[in-house]
Amino acid sequence: MTTFFWPYDGNTVAIAGSFNDWKPQPLNKGPKGFFTTIDLPSGTYQYKFVVDNRRWCFDVMRPVTVDDSGNRNNTVVVGGKQKQSQQKEQKEQKEQKEQKEEKPAEEAAPVATKGKGKGGQQQQQQKQAKQPKQAKKQKEEEGVGEEEGEDEATRSKRVSDIAKNIISTVKSYQVPFYVGDVDCKDSVDDVLEVAKHFQTELPSIGCMFLSGGVKTFIVAAVVPAEKTSSITALEWVSASLEVVPNPPAPSGSDTFAHAVVAADPDKGLFPIKLKDLSRGPTFGLMRKRGLVQEEESDDEMFFLDE
Fold first, then answer.
1. What's residue 279's pLDDT?
2. Residue 72 is inside which H or E element, if any?
3. Are 289 and 162 in contact (CB under 8 A)?
């Protein structure tokens, strides 16, 4: 039996996927969200949640794949015991390899059995052997990504590549407004730099950038001056923050604005979840202004001029 769970907003939620010919099947409403359990044969399946009979959504906290048409769907593997066994075997092999690498340092003690500083060499070698693991563990606990150790040239290239990717995507869609995700972890500077690259390359198009890391949810928006009569960057960012209790006031101007929300598990503030939920009010504001083209899915939002 496979359980599907939707922990986000919605009055009604259904599930549709390759296992039911993409025909929405209602979920039950529980105290923490919507759920259902389905008996599926072994295999790999794609699916989406249908919220309020109109929004086709995927859960960012679950595995996601892109189908042949470019749609992003959740994916689930049923009957993956063999895969789990392989993963367990790989993990055991990795642990054995690490133990072998540590063994020379532990056996070095007999070498220094005589003379001044007895035992010092062993302690030093053991300390050196532990340092890489301790540093890795500290990074994992602090939620620090690999980007933390990169030099400025590497960081600049990474940010430039992110900007080029979203610029290329927007050019292909040829729309005046776009909302997209940027994988900048917890770096506000990186998100703002991507936004500035975009503003320079596509000055006539408005764009909102959403980034959800471990520690922060970051949103930034750029709006061409000639389009601020329809919506301003400050208004756009403020709309995205409606999912946050007591949201911070966005910083910036009518053409360039941003806001940062720190993670707070005690208050239910999880950056990745906020990034996903923020699309709702953002989309709602654009609809009220008459600037949105209704799509089958809110995964990507494309906005039209008045």
1. 86
2. strand 72-78
3. no
CA distance 45 to 18: 6
Instruction: Decide: residue 38, CB within 10 A, 0-12 exposed, 13-18 middle, 19+ buried.
Output: middle
Residues 6+ apart with CB under 8 A from 52: 10, 11, 12, 13
Residue ranges in the chain modelled with pLDDT below 50:
81-83, 85-86, 103-116, 118, 136-146, 294-306
CA distance 292 to 295: 9
DSSP β-bridge partners for residue 143: none
Map residue 130 onto helix, strand or coil: helix
Dihedral angle over CA of 67, 169, 209, 73, nearest 10: 0
Say whether pTM exceeds 0.90: no
* Pair 32, 53: CB distance under 8 Å: no
For residue 177, what are its two tokens?
């407004």
**Whether the Cβ atoms of residue 154 and residue 184 lie closer than 8 Å to each other:** no
Neighbours of 63 (CB within 10 A): 12
Tokens 């320079």 — which residue?
A: 200
* Neighbour tally for 211: CB within 10 Å: 25
- Which of 216, 212, 253 has its CA nearest to residue 236? 253
Q: Estimate to the nearest angstrom the gap between the alpha carbon of 253 and the chain centroid.
A: 26
Residue 237 parent element (H or E): helix 233-240
User: How do residues 79-105 score in pLDDT, each as one tens digit?
Assistant: 854 445 445 555 665 666 566 555 444
Residue 140: per-residue pLDDT: 41
